[in-house]
Amino acid sequence: MIAWRSGRWRELARYPSAIAGVAIILVLVGVALAAPLAVPYGEALERWRGGERWQYHPVNAAPVWVDRLRGGRAPTTRVIASRDVEAEVHPFPGGRRLTLPLTFDYAFDDFPSELNLFLTAEGHARPPFVRLLWQTPDGREIPLGGHRLGERERISISQDRALAQRLGGLAPHIGLFAAEKAEGEAGAPSLQTGRYGLVLEAVLFDAEAPLEAELVVYGRVHGIAGTDHQRRALSLALLWGTPVALAFGLIAAVGTTLTTLVIAAVGVWYRGWVDAVIQRLTEVNMILPVLPILVMVGTLYSTSIWLMLGVVVLLGIFSAGIKTYRAMLLPIREAPYIEAARAYGASNLRIVMRYMLPRILPVLVPSFVTLIPTFVFLEASLAVLGLGDPELPTWGKVLNDAQSQSALYNGYVYWVVSPALLLMLTGLGFAMLGFALDRVFNPRLRSL
Amino acid sequence: MTAEAPLMEAPLVEARGLHTWFELRQWGFLRVGAVRAVDDVSFTLARGEAVAFVGESGCGKSSLVRTLLGLHRPTAGEVRCEGRDLASLGGAELKAWRARVGYVQQDPFGALPPFLDVRRILAEPLKVHGVGDRAERERRIRAALEEVRLTPVEEFLGKFPHMLSGGQQQRVVIARALILEPALVIADEPVSMLDASVRVEILELLRGIQRQRGLTLAFVTHDLATVRHYAERILVLYAGKVVESAPVEALLDAPEHPYTRALLGVLSDPDAANATRQREVPPGEPPSLITPPSGCRFHPRCARAIAGRCEVEAPPEIATAPARRVACWLFDEPAPPAP
Questions:
Q1: Domain A4-48+232-445, classified CATH 1.10.3720, yes or no
Q2: Three-state DSSP class for A405?
């Protein structure tokens, strides 16, 4: 067990699949370690819960790099804030008039996906009033109406039905960016690029109190992983899904392997009725369907990932592994060196731990490595079935959301592909390492 | 303690009416019979003597050895170790006794854990019994290797069993048996799986250490030819019973039991004068230990069986000379017939 250490590792390095597998696993482990550093656990849960913090993110935006790789220039989100522009101020008795020109260059290939204006007017005695004017690059001016402002106001320009009708039935975020059509011209609206502006003419009944405005021109692509239907960046779930998946897989694999191993060893060592009881329990447990039981627990009790983990390990205790380990331990038990150890007084525990278990490590290690992804998949399957942890962002949860939002039907391929790819990558990494380990540990499997 | 003095007087090991039967069960609980591997065996092993147990394969030699080692619980009878019943010893006492008994197995390669090197293999018994610190253990390991003449010691300490020859492996096994400085070494066919060329060396080594240390050596063999030089006393076993026990010279020169005579007859005899002599090769096979023959177990194969007696009643052990016993009805007379 000790002596082959360096030799075996060197041998392992001869298998390209082992190196590739180790590389994949190292990357995943690196990501898993980076996740809590980048976003602390509590914050990740908090952020994934959704809400206002995501309001500057577009809905269902694809990853930026996918579009750029295909040579596209799909719009990204732009935020034009009043604090970055010069405001014209005209004081009058009892207040002031404010003109805020929120201008920006628009040079993308596609219309934005949404247009919102966020206004903050705190500390005003009377609510201020604001009138909006849209300026297009070709010099047209389109009034967007007036609003009386509360302390925090969100003006969803995209949702303005009246405006849409004035724009010829086009959604405002398209109509406002479309080139003017000749009379009677049909067909899809064409995008106009250039300098746009939203001019805010505000009447404030206060000499001091500020007015902050943020115009958000939502893009159609976002970040490295895109966003979902709740504007949440998928990168958060993909990032945090890594430590969750690895921890679940590893803990479940360690838990089930160790317990089955110890139980198999106990059965083999004591034989008789102990072994008989263990074998019958295993046989009963082997025909128990794991997934339906987990679905039941999840439906009736709780879908906490730690409870699921506990149930998985619990069901794994008397699993088929016991049969395998028993078959391997039985001949070892009869080995003369075991008898010799008994003759010089070694305790049962010492014999099992020191003489029997090392012999089955060659089979144990590869099967343990290949076992990890099966538990990662199990967790993802549960999440896809809607039994994922309600709080944790995981790959399975992303898939579940994608499925419930008919992502593939709506063309949001990235939503399904990225978590699926990560799951496959995990499986691939561990499988490649596991198979290579199997060959190194079990020379009989080596190809001739 | 008042009991101490008589305990020291007691023989090192004494087997009294020892039975080791292995029950045969059907469906895990129905008893359908038993393999009577050891059936009413009594003997003593005195301090400092070398005793050979001789018999054919399947006569219960190995079961007897394992019972002596406490690896099998005797079905009946007892093994008394320095006057105390082995079965009555508690955990700590049993462990202490195990430190006093060395065990040399038949298959040296199987007897050594393949995943440990020689140093670790030899350290195991010391660790189990908490002997010494690291340096002390290392010293004893080196001393043990020197005693079994695996020198230079450095060359062997780091080796794994598969890197050693059969003879070297058996030396490591012997070193392991000796490392706790036992009073008794039990060897179960210690050379039967070795090349003929190293058998004598190993036997010489065992005998030398036994003499030098004054320990008791009990070894099992099916090879009567080698016994003469390596034991002082022989017990001949047949079908789970002791048929003859005698000092080695007396037994080899004048075997009494027909089975012993047959065994010796089977041996190649270098004396040309005896080449044409009629040998008493026993016909047939060793009997089944599940359904042994009635009466004397040897009677179906015995050329000199007394009809109406041998197949009816098992013969008692009859003392024919001092320190000499034979279980045969032929000697149940005031004047035994000349062999």
A1: yes
A2: coil
